[in-house]
Specification:
This protein is α/β, with parallel strands linked by helices. 34% of the residues lie in helices and 17% in strands. The protein has helices spanning 52-70, 83-92, 106-110, 120-128, 143-154, 160-169, 205-215, and strands at 20-22, 29-31, 40-45, 73-79, 98-101, 130-131, 141-142, 175-179, 185-190. The strands form 3 sheets. It has a 5-stranded mixed β-sheet with strand order 5-4-3-8-9, covered by helices on one side. The protein has a two-stranded antiparallel ribbon with strand order 1-2. The longest helix is centred in the N-terminal third of the chain and has 19 residues, at 52-70. The protein starts with 19 loop residues before the first strand and ends in a 9-residue tail after the last helix.
């Protein structure tokens, strides 16, 4: 991945960094230690809700989360925006899994999810890249055109918080981590880990389920 200098994410076999963040469901917080000894966890790190790829991944994960729960794995999504902005969004699009907020991207940093430096080489590569990660577009489009088209399909209008998030966060990547009940990372998926063509792509439910069966096996309390 020559165009995108990356830091090293937390990898399989390493202890997952703990955290404590505010959650949407009530006035409390959630931490990794809440799951330790009780359940495995699928942890999905997103950027702000301005990102149409993240909005689609959240919906995709909502569909997949019951399958994960049936395998003894709970799901936690972390969105990088202010709590009230997230509450407004999910008021109209309720989630089937817990959502926490981290506008400062502190958990992305703790887990080593890369934020590439926008070097001239990277900007040049991005300018020629065409994407269609969800298959919704009639053909791959330049990134900015693709995001604008998807936002229009959503009827999504950015607010002031979204615009501030974009300015602070771009080009932060996203990551997903499967953590066992002992707090050990067993599987990871980092956006663009195999190249720029991975922008906006999220692992399919079948891929996540296969990772659960392969890495934590019979650990899940409801694993069949």
């Amino acid at each position: 991945m020559n165009e995108m200098p990356l830091q090293s994410p937390v990898s399989s076999g390493e202890r997952a960094p703990d955290f404590r963040l505010p959650v949407l469901d009530g006035n409390g917080t959630v931490s990794l230690s809440d799951y330790r000894g009780r359940s495995s966890l699928f942890l999905a790190l997103f950027v702000g809700l301005w990102c149409p790829f993240c909005r689609r991944a959240l919906a995709q994960l909502a569909t997949a989360s019951p399958q994960l729960e049936a395998l003894g794995v709970e799901t936690l999504g972390i969105v990088a925006t202010e709590l009230e902005n997230a509450r407004l969004y999910f008021k109209f699009r309720p989630s089937r899994f817990r959502i926490a907020t981290d506008p400062a991207l502190s958990i992305h940093r703790a887990y080593g999810v890369p934020k590439p430096v926008p070097t001239p080489d990277l900007m040049q590569a991005l300018s020629t890249l065409r994407v269609n990660p969800t298959g919704e577009l009639p053909e791959p489009l330049p990134i900015m055109e693709a995001t604008a088209t998807l936002a229009k399909l959503d009827g999504y209008v950015e607010n002031e918080t979204d615009r501030g998030d974009v300015e602070r966060q771009w080009p932060q990547l996203k990551g997903q981590f499967l953590i066992d009940r002992d707090g050990i990372v067993r599987w990871t998926h980092i956006e663009c880990e195999e190249g720029l063509d991975g922008i906006g792509k999220f692992p399919a439910a079948s891929e996540i389920v296969a990772a659960i069966r392969t890495t934590i096996g019979g650990e899940g309390t409801r694993l069949q």
